[in-house]
């Protein structure tokens, strides 16, 4: 029930439900960041990163200006469509810590959210490593051998793969120290860092206009242009900076791919785009800080969109100026060309260090927040079948989520830092860039997919205040991201999808968070589709060829009916299955609330416990008979209505408790009776005194079912049946069918509707995997060969795999005792005959005799059914109303 308490909205959700909305002022505890410091600055710095100063020449020199502008448009198009999805998501509800993971998991559910969140966490880890490698590359290019700042022979930093890894480690440790202090410090310094990067970028733009043409030195590591001299030194090689020139611009318009001098690999359109896109993947840097933002719903859209527009304009300006002023040979062979042409060279060094270091720090902070959110949700708490391993993982996750200082996740930061250190072992910036791009694109796919699903599901509560989102933008974002993943690197893309699917399956099976009441988009989509198809399902178009049993099982108490519930589940053959229960003897007009509402969740839990595919329908009525009318008429929906009603047999036996008995396969501590009526599904006392229905009313109910034109099944002795014994008892071989009305054996035609329905149900149960090892046996009460041949022909025509067995005892002894009044002696003889041939029978299907026309005979009719079925194997008495078999194609 929705109620207002202390200014907050309480939905009365169960354990695990999280409601973040409030009517008063939102809590600002631990939230100190605004739009500029918390979103715009981190996003801008992440999108500038290594690309701004280290790879503009690589992009323009290989792809050409026109191609690179197209690639920027494609990349930013994907980003803009994804940003609209992010904006829609974060303006549709309160956003907590965890950023993209929080938004995706609360929309798509824990399985998708956990898997995508894990990959997004890894993407941030890879991205942090990427920017550290870029920062070290800039440092070595400036202060290493032949450094542009220190000059030839004045090396301040030794250069080798080992030394570079050492420098990366030092920077990673510096990031760790900042993270341990907290994100607030980074946010405060990010504004200063942004100002520094902006000054350095402005100096580059100004330099294009004021610098005269010059020769630029090619770095010594470029072995494609350098030749070794006789004394082991490198001869200086230069390439031309022309200044702004139309001829230079024209020469740089089109693509001319060559080898990357850092690794010797041939450059291509896809590799260029991979590097380009890796530099602009920081659009979620602001969303990652959602836990520290004062108003994430307002700050994330404004800050992210502003940063996207600003960085795109900057990249466009730098690309055009680069193409118009630098020869192609310079761009392809000197990636850090911006330094020698700058009006003050240290500007570029400062820009490289600040842009890359801040971007790596931003991603390290973001990854730690995502990891903390994953740990809080205990997503992987049961990812191992081993109980010991699961408990160990659970304890580790608890440490990761709980070990904090001033809202700073210390343990999560340490784990993220360690993984970044592993990424640094790769070394090559361009290789890391492709992995980074693919992982980020996959997280963007998930974000767009989440919003697309919400929009297509037409959920009334999906009404984001961000108005520029539609399902078209989300769909374009999904398609664009998937296509570009495979353009960048098909192998990485395929591996990431496979890993994502494996994580989804792992979380679906083992995650303890899958029962969390976050709400899953899958339920909304299923509802949307089911409603559509139910409207398309027309009962007027039903055809007997496609008939299937649609069962309504009337359950008095599930404790004593667990065996029967399971058996009917096997008999439904992919049809509708409804468990119906009537709370009788109560006048609803005198009740303060509906008692079925409290019981309904217990019934759903029972369905899960018994592992049956059934719906539950509960009703309140003065009598069980009245409740039966409710259930038969209103159960199901549209054309999916029960066509067969199943009763348990009426007797005075003490009801067993299959949910409590220690030897029962259905026993569970959850259903242990603690005594009294407060326990779940309390059993009646011994005898018939506690029954909610009398024998006369019971037969009236049978008659009502037939009057409502429904097939009827009455089941007896299933309290003696255990499906485990069914599979292991080798003495049981047959499922028996008796296509004869024992109350009126003069009608011996096996082609009656009841007999055909009888054989159809037996055939259906025999088709189930757990009943296939039984032989279907049709018992023919005749000794004439032509009757056997006729019945065998019928079975062949109906494609029923069964054999016919004659019962000569019928004609020899039993039939002679029959009279119109159906004496007890005759029924005892019939019962003996059935038992004599049922020694190896697992289940018996018997034709249910027609009910007497007068209610005065109902009690006698029930007594005769009792005599007929005493001490038989589990038996199903069947009466058919409608045709259920077809011989046509």
Description of the structure:
It is a multi-pass membrane protein. InterPro entries: AA-permease/SLC12A_dom, SLC12_C, SLC12A_fam. This is Solute carrier family 12 member 9. With 889 residues, the protein is an alpha/beta fold. The protein has 3 domains: 3-139 and 154-205 and 268-333 and 344-521, Amino acid/polyamine transporter I (Up-down Bundle), CATH 1.20.1740.10; 545-719, HUPs (Rossmann fold), CATH 3.40.50; 721-889, HUPs (Rossmann fold, 3-Layer(aba) Sandwich), CATH 3.40.50. It is 53% helix and 8% strand. The protein has 28 helices and 16 strands. Strands 9-8-7-10-11-16-15-12-13-14 form a 10-stranded mixed sheet, with helices on both faces. Strands 1-2 form a two-stranded antiparallel ribbon. Strands 3-4 form a two-stranded antiparallel ribbon. Helix 3 (100-108) runs parallel beside helix 15 (429-456) and helix 4 (110-143) packs across helix 5. It is elongated, with a radius of gyration of 38 Å. Residues 1-27 and 674-678 have low confidence and may be disordered.
Summarize the structure.
The chain is of the alpha/beta class. The chain has 3 domains: 3-139 and 154-205 and 268-333 and 344-521, Amino acid/polyamine transporter I; 545-719, Rossmann fold (3-Layer(aba) Sandwich); 721-889, HUPs (Rossmann fold, 3-Layer(aba) Sandwich). Strand 8, helix 20 and strand 9 form a beta-alpha-beta unit.
């Amino acid at each position: 029930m929705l109620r207002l308490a202390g200014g907050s909205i309480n939905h009365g959700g169960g354990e695990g439900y999280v409601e973040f909305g409030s009517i008063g002022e939102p809590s600002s505890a631990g939230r100190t960041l605004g739009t500029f410091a918390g979103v715009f600055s981190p996003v801008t710095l992440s999108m500038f990163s290594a690309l701004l100063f280290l790879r503009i020449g690589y992009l323009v020199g290989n792809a050409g200006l026109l191609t690179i502008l197209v690639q920027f448009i494609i990349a930013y198009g994907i980003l803009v469509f994804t940003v609209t999805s992010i904006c829609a998501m974060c303006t549709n509800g309160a956003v907590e810590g965890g950023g993209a993971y929080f938004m995706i998991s609360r929309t798509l559910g824990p399985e998708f959210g956990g898997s995508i969140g894990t990959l997004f966490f890894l993407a941030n880890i890879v991205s942090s490593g990427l920017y550290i490698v870029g920062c070290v590359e800039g440092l070595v290019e400036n202060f290493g051998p032949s450094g542009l700042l220190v000059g030839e022979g004045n090396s301040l930093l030794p250069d080798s793969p080992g030394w570079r890894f050492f420098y990366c480690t030092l920077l990673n440790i510096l990031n760790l120290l900042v993270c341990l202090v907290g994100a607030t410090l980074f946010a405060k310094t990010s504004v200063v860092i942004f100002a520094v990067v902006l000054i350095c970028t402005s100096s580059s733009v100004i330099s294009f206009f004021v610098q005269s043409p010059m020769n630029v030195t090619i770095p010594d590591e470029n072995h494609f242009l350098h030749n070794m001299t006789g004394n082991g030194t490198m001869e200086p090689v230069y390439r031309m900076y022309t200044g702004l020139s139309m001829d230079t611009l024209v020469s740089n318009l089109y693509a001319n791919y060559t080898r990357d001098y850092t690794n010797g690999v041939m450059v291509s359109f896809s590799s260029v785009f991979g590097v380009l896109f890796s530099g602009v993947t920081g659009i979620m840097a602001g969303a990652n800080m959602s836990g520290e933002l004062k108003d994430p719903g307002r700050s994330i859209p404004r800050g992210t969109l502003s940063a996207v527009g600003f960085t795109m304009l900057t990249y466009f300006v730098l690309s055009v100026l680069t193409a118009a002023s630098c020869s192609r040979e310079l761009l392809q062979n000197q990636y850090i060309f911006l330094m020698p042409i700058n009006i003050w060279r240290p500007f570029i060094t400062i820009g490289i260090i600040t842009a890359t270091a801040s971007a790596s720090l931003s991603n390290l902070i973001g990854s730690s927040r995502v990891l903390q959110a994953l740990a809080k949700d205990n997503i992987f708490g049961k990812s191992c079948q081993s109980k010991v391993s699961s408990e160990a993982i659970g304890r580790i996750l608890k440490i990761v989520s709980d070990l904090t200082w001033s809202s700073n996740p210390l343990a999560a930061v340490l784990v993220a830092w360690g993984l970044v250190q592993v990424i640094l072992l790769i070394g090559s910036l361009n290789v890391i860039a492709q992995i980074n791009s693919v992982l980020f694109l996959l997280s963007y796919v998930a974000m767009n997919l989440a919003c697309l699903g919400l929009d297509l599901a037409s959920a009334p509560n999906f009404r984001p205040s961000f108005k520029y989102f539609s399902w078209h933008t989300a769909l374009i974002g999904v398609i664009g991201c998937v296509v570009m993943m495979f353009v960048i690197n098909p192998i990485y893309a395929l591996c990431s999808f496979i890993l994502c699917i494996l994580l989804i399956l792992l979380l679906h099976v083992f995650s303890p968070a899958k029962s969390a009441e976050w709400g899953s988009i899958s339920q909304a989509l299923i509802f949307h589709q089911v409603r559509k198809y139910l409207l398309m399902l027309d009962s007027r178009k039903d055809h007997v060829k496609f008939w299937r049993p649609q069962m309504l099982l009337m359950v008095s108490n599930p404790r004593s009916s667990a065996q029967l519930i399971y058996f009917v589940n096997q008999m439904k053959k992919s049809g509708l299955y409804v468990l119906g229960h009537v709370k009788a003897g109560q006048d609803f007009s005198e009740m303060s609330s509906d008692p079925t509402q409290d019981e309904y969740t217990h019934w759903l839990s029972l369905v899960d416990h018994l592992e049956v595919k059934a719906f539950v329908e509960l009703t309140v009525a003065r009598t069980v008979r009245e409740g039966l009318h409710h259930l038969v008429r209103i159960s199901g929906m549209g054309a999916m209505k029960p066509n067969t009603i199943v009763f348990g047999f009426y007797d005075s036996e003490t009801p067993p408790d299959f949910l409590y008995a220690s030897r029962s396969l259905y026993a569970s501590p959850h259903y242990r009776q603690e005594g009294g009526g407060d326990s779940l599904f309390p059993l009646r006392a011994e005898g018939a005194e506690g029954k909610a229905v009398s024998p006369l009313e019971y037969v009236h109910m049978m008659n009502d079912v037939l009057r409502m034109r429904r097939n009827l099944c009455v089941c007896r002795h299933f309290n003696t049946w255990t499906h485990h014994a069914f599979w292991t008892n080798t003495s049981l071989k047959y499922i028996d069918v008796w296509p004869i009305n024992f109350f009126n054996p003069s009608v011996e035609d096996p082609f009656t509707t009841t007999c055909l329905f009888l054989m159809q149900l037996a055939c259906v149960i025999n088709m189930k995997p757990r009943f296939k090892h039984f032989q279907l046996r049709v018992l023919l009460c005749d000794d004439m060969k032509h009757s056997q041949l006729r019945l065998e022909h019928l079975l062949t025509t109906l494609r029923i795999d069964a054999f016919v067995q004659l019962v000569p005892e019928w004609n020899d002894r039993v039939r002679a005792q029959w009279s119109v009044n159906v004496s007890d002696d005759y029924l005892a003889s019939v019962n003996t005959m059935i038992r004599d041939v049922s020694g190896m029978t697992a289940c018996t299907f018997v034709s249910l005799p027609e009910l007497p026309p007068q209610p005065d005979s109902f009690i006698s009719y029930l007594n005769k059914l009792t005599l007929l079925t005493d001490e038989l194997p589990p038996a199903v008495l069947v009466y058919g109303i409608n045709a259920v078999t077809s011989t046509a194609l």
